[in-house]
Design a protein that fits this description.
Jelly Rolls; 2 domains; 5-stranded antiparallel sheet
Length: 390
């Protein structure tokens, strides 16, 4: 029966993959987008397997999602994401030890609908809003109504909620340790019976729906960015209630040829709690941030003497501090975030000959030697491991 179920899963996934490929055929003469798409379908399948097939609201587990390997929806390189299937009619306790991440937010969703459309989060809470003791410990009850006699921390739970998401944002990779968090359900016995065949069948069908919805949503998102805007022009992006509360997002399609560079430039507000910029490919997967400097945040970036941030997108190392490495991509997406900032400036992109790059940068822009770049990349990988941003 298990083998038959697996074979059926494959049969259901094949037409989903075919449908997605048909959507990119017209703009994919060399097959590169199809190859990216294949990876994204596998990523969605892996993510959905953990959340929907293995997830059980009766015995919830916070499972890691959206990593450098499970790479869809252009995950923020500074963020670790965790999700658990929950029942909005249940009672849960979230407890643990607050780590050193810059901030940590809990969302009660779903964050993404199975239909392939973003859903408004039905509850958004900061871990730092809780009572955290001297050892960093916290505990909060999550339920429809506050339990009788409970005078500790409590978050309301909408009955329509199906998932709990936790995201932690790290600014100084390697210096900030992740939190340790546990999620438990309180209104059912500690031991629950395994799911029956009908329930597992329903979960498998939902997994297929999830793969289609997630792949379609981000494929269409990247297509609309390309069709509705001009290359190397950045605009605002509204993610509604699905992102971090109060965070402003900008996005645009970048395009360059070998022998060219793009100068990314913006003012940097002061004060500004958090800001970052990243590169993604044409199906909205973030460029490998472990092996390439495809992202920079406010703690990693170097500002020029005039207080502005200038970065360079180039296929080969331009020998400047703020290189955004597209890992060989001549087309892709640039995305950035402003959070808790006095202002939210819109960056610009300027296409210039790589040989004349220095003419378009401040004269005091330092040179970065190959040995220095190698050391910086090694430190980046170590920092990603230590903070769990993998």
């Amino acid at each position: 029966m298990a083998r038959l179920a697996f074979e059926r899963l494959l049969d259901l996934i094949r037409p989903v993959a075919a449908e997605m490929r048909e959507r990119v055929t017209a703009r994919d003469p060399d097959g590169r987008i199809s190859a990216m798409l294949d990876q994204q379908i596998l990523a969605a399948l892996s993510d959905g397997f953990h959340i929907w097939l293995m997830g059980d609201s009766r015995q919830p587990m916070l499972r890691r999602s959206l990593t450098s390997a499970v790479n869809l929806a252009a995950p923020n390189c500074d963020t670790t994401y965790y999700y658990a299937a929950i029942d909005g009619r249940g009672t849960y306790r979230l407890s643990g030890i607050r780590g050193g991440a810059m901030f940590a937010n809990v969302s009660l969703g779903p964050l993404w609908q199975l239909s392939g459309q973003l859903a408004t989060v039905r509850g958004n809470h900061a871990l730092d809003s809780l009572r955290i003791d001297a050892d960093g410990r916290f505990s909060v009850i999550i339920s429809e109504e506050r339990p009788a006699g409970h005078d500790g921390d409590w978050w309301p739970l909408d009955p329509a909620v199906e998932a709990l998401g936790l995201r932690e944002v790290f600014y100084r990779w390697g210096e900030e340790a992740p939190s340790r968090v546990a999620l438990e359900r309180l209104d059912v016995p500690g031991r629950v019976e395994p799911c029956g065949g009908a329930e597992r069948e329903a979960r498998m069908l939902r997994l297929v729906e999830w793969v289609r919805g997630q792949t379609l949503m981000w494929l269409d998102h990247s297509r609309k960015l390309a069709e509705n805007g001009q290359p190397n022009v950045i605009g605002w992006q509204n993610y509604g209630g699905s992102g971090v509360p109060g965070q402003a997002y900008y996005e645009g399609v970048f395009e360059l040829d070998p022998g060219e560079a793009l100068v990314f430039e913006t003012a940097v507000p002061d004060p500004c709690r958090y800001w970052s910029v990243l590169l993604a490919d044409r199906v909205f997967s973030t460029v490998d941030w472990i092996n390439h400097q495809s992202s920079l945040n406010g703690a990693q970036a170097r500002l020029d003497a005039d207080g502005r941030f200038r970065a360079v997108i180039a296929l080969s190392d331009p020998g400047v501090p703020n290189w955004l490495d597209p890992a060989g991509l001549t087309q892709g997406i640039v995305q950035g975030r402003w959070l808790g900032c006095e202002d939210t400036p819109l960056p610009t992109l300027a296409r210039v000959p790589l040989a004349a790059l220095r003419d378009h940068l401040p004269p005091d822009t330092p040179a970065v030697l190959p040995v220095e770049r190698d050391a910086a990349m090694r430190a980046r990988r170590v920092g990603a491991h230590l903070s769990g941003i993998l």
